[in-house]
Amino acid sequence: MIRKNLMLGVSALAIAGCSGAAERSEETSLAVRSEALSVSSRHETARSRYVLVFKGETTPPDLMERVSNAGGTLSLRIDEIGVATAKGDEKFAARMAKDPDVLAVGPEFFDELPATMEVALSETEGAGLEAQGTYLAPAPEDNLYYYHWNVRRIGAPAAWARIPAEAQRQVTVAVLDTGVMDDHPDLLGQVVDSVATNYCQETGGTFGSAAYPIYRTFIDFDAYPEWDVEDGCSVAERPSYEGHGTHVAGTIAAKVGGGRVVGVAPGVGIAAYKVFDRYRYTTESGVVVDRIGAFSGPQLAAIVDAANKGYDVISMSLGGTYDRSDKDDTAAWVARDRVAKYANRKGSVMVASAGNSGQGSNGTVAHLPSDLPTVISVSASNSNNIPLGPEGYDAVPGSDTFASYSNYGASTDIAAPGGDCGPEGCYAKYFILSTIVRADGSAWYGFQAGTSMATPHVSAVAALIRAQHPEWTAGEVREHLKATADKVGDRQLFGHGILNADVATR
Ligand SMILES: [Ca+2]
Ligand SMILES: [Ca+2]
Fold first, then answer.
1. In this structure, which ligand is nearest to the CA of 495?
2. Predicted confidence band at 133 (pLDDT cuts at 50, 70, 90)?
3. Spans of all domains in the chain
4. Which of 136, 323, 441, 463 is deepest in the core (most CB within 10 A)?
5. CA of 413, nearest ligand number
6. Are residues 203 and 210 in contact, defined by beta-carbon separation less than 8 angstroms?
């Protein structure tokens, strides 16, 4: 029935070749990249699932009776914003739409995470670097620091020098994603809260946390074509580990020391929200599709929870395209707009990826949540010249480019490094290196590209600004980020410019 795009980390991928210190993995060719970038993941929403938006920005006390009287079953009620999700047929939707307290009824959309591809770090990478010096790494363990052109391009080290770790630790960034590996050596102790709002709320990992990215259960659309929360989640034959949220979290807060990389705000805390569910269905041609996607309801619930807990920043490397002129999209649109305003009122700075379809989102089509006025929309930049210098691979001043896959448009607020291919080809050094979970569940490092990778840079700098100015409103932080960005060119592409942590924290 209804389909929505979701563009998460593009993640071009190839098998990392073997390489030593002299032959680093930037030699790895990313032949499949163009194919990966053209992926425009679509998935049918679970039929019969609806979002109900009430007029009064609160849900009526007798909500459950109203839903059951109309022939539906209630899944989630989000009282703070007057939104609920429910299951029912089309008659149910029509009946609810006639309720005088209801503003809009529409499908509950399901945003898909495309199959993640990445350039994994080779096993030998970084070995023997001690002999060459550690390229000004903040700690000897951070021996992949020389790959962090992105961290240095936005001037993060200058900000670290100004904002003590204790001040950073007062700030928390909520990461709405697939989960965060809380015992990754670079993230151990960084995850200060763990919440699963997804419909399959399994726990996992060393600490058994609710947001650990193990997907042992799934929504079985073959067994339950009209799946409801009450039908529960089925046990998978083997777990899957989804590293997207761990990559995002590492770019924000991978710590100094511990593991081998460093985030943009290495002292801040991460609140990991798992909003994605694993799901499976068989296509008409018999292909079994086993992927990860996020329903609207769990996303809205996570934002409300993070805002209620006073988390400073809400980082969303996710989204989908919506059409203002499509009546079916109205409920989802209003609900997302309402929750963004709610979070802003509570002081949470909302940051979201612009999306990876290489399209301008002007006109009636918008990418949500990024295109909402109270959400910072992040497009992706790259560099066309990243030589190895005294501090490692660094972008030559003036070499900024716009990433080929990034969305753009009038609502783009700011750009940040997201990685892309370079002039010599698709080499790892042009990508963003961060923490990942390998297919066997172990902690590792990977290079990825996408607006999903650009977004956490902005979230991290918003957190650093909050550490300096705890009293600033979400709107003040947002305006400060834009005002301090490097003006590099086309407003439609880069918004107010490329994020600058150094200028933003002076
Ligand atoms: Ca580290
Ligand atoms: Ca926006």
1. 2
2. low
3. 3-46+108-115+137-504
4. 463
5. 2
6. yes
CA of 413 to the centre of ligand 1 (A): 30
Question: pLDDT-based confidence at 409, cuts 50/70/90?
Answer: very high
For 271, list phi and psi in degrees, rounded to 5. -105, 110
Q: What is the pLDDT of residue 391?
A: 86
Residues whose Cβ atom is located within 5 A of ion ligand 1:
142, 186, 258-259
| C-alpha–C-alpha distance, residues 230 and 108, integer Å | 16
- The token duo for 452 is 């999903």
CATH topology of domain 3-46+108-115+137-504: Rossmann fold (3.40.50)
pLDDT, tens digit (0-9, with 9 covering 90-100), for 135-149:
889 999 999 999 999
Element at 416 (helix H, strand E)? strand 414-417
Residue pLDDT, tens place only, 169-224: 999 999 999 999 999 999 999 999 999 999 999 999 999 999 999 999 999 999 98
pLDDT at res. 336: 95
Spacing, Cα 460 to ligand 2 middle (Å): 17
- Residues within 5 Å of ion ligand 2 by Cβ? 375, 377, 411
Q: Which amino acid is at 187?
A: L
Distance 139 CA to ligand 1 centre (A): 7
Nearest-angstrom CA–CA distance, 14 and 30: 5
Residue type, 494: F
- Residue 164's CB is within 10 A of a number of other CB atoms, namely 11
Compute, in angstroms, the gap from residue 261 CA to the centroid of ligand 1.
4
Ligand nearest to the CA of 379: 2
- Segment (H or E) for 430: none
- In sequence order, the 6+-apart residues with CB closer than 8 A to the CB of 345 are none
Say if residue 387 is preceded by a cis peptide, omega within 30 of 0. Answer: no
Q: How many CB atoms lie within 10 A of CB 399?
A: 16
Contact between 414 and 486 (Cβ < 8 Å):
no
Question: How much of the chain is helix, strand and coil, in % rounded to 5?
Answer: 25, 30, 45
User: Distance between CA 264 and CA 504 in Å, rounded?
Assistant: 13
26 confidence band (pLDDT: 50, 70, 90): very low
pLDDT at 44: 52
- What is the CB neighbour count within 10 angstroms for residue 334? 18
pLDDT at 361: 78
